[in-house]
Amino acid sequence: MLKAVVRAVGIRRAGPFRPRLLHNMVPYDVNRAQELTSRYNEVKFSCDAACKNAGVDHEVLLLAVSKLKPASDIQILYDHGVRHFGENYVQELIEKSKLLPQDIEWHFIGGLQTNKCKDLAKVPNLRYVETIDSLKKAKKLNETRVENAPMILCNIQINTSDESQKSGMSDENEIFELVEFFQSPESNNVQLKGLLTIGSWDVSHSDDPNVDNADFATLVNWKTKIDGKFGTNLKLSMGMSADFKQAIRQGSSEIRIGTDIFGTRPAKADAKII
């Protein structure tokens, strides 16, 4: 595999690699490009079909979850027209953001440590942090956002399945306190956009996609409660490969798809950005 980013104009390279001749562009293999765009198109077709079948009248974002995949894979889909990518690890997102085009809208969708908020907030084209699960983290992102960068759009992560291994908030008072912060004048670099949840494995892998997912129903109830109390109109981020049809039918505005688009991920220790 090509190990370095090609930046010089006029470089020619034999074989299947197509050099990218502009800054913040990463070279890639054309055969991989054909495979990846085909997989993305199949997922997008399924998403659009699910929207049509559910009679959805709002936009549903297909978020390409690129964690542990090389920057070249992201460049392929960028050249295919995709602009929204989800990453789970702060350092990986930072490194990819330096290599890839600056009009990518990065979504951070992993577990966020308070001491990593400052590093994440320095990424100019970080657009979404979807896993806010404490007031402290929201305040830290707000305080450390890089100057002149766009406001960070945030989702509150809710633990709808009451599973101890899952992140997310469940205490009503703490959730309301966090919403109040987002609505205060103090919150000038972060903005509340929605709620996120990850359904339990058992519920998400049910045999019948026409049966409501109980975890998604719980998130919808949280939206209703918060919207009613605070006058918001929150979006919902719920649904992955196994349960996105249920999520769309139950009101999701974003589905997060990784493996079905990019294929099996390597172990974290084996993952390479370039």
From TrEMBL:
Q: Which cofactor does it need?
A: pyridoxal 5'-phosphate
The record's section on CDD domains has: PLPDE_III_YBL036c_euk
Query: What is the protein name stated in its UniProt record?
Result: Pyridoxal phosphate homeostasis protein
Pfam families membership:
Ala_racemase_N
Question: What's the domain of life for this entry?
Answer: Eukaryota
Q: Does the keyword Nucleus apply?
A: no
Q: Which residues carry this modification: N6-(pyridoxal phosphate)lysine?
A: K67
**What function does the entry list?**
Pyridoxal 5'-phosphate (PLP)-binding protein, which may be involved in intracellular homeostatic regulation of pyridoxal 5'-phosphate (PLP), the active form of vitamin B6.
Provide this UniProt record's keywords sorted from A to Z: Pyridoxal phosphate
Q: Which family does it belong to?
A: Belongs to the pyridoxal phosphate-binding protein YggS/PROSC family.
> Domain Alanine racemase N-terminal, which positions?
63-266
Q: Which GO terms describe its molecular function?
A: pyridoxal phosphate binding
Task: Note the InterPro entries from the entry.
Answer: Ala_racemase_N, PLP-binding_barrel, PyrdxlP_homeostasis
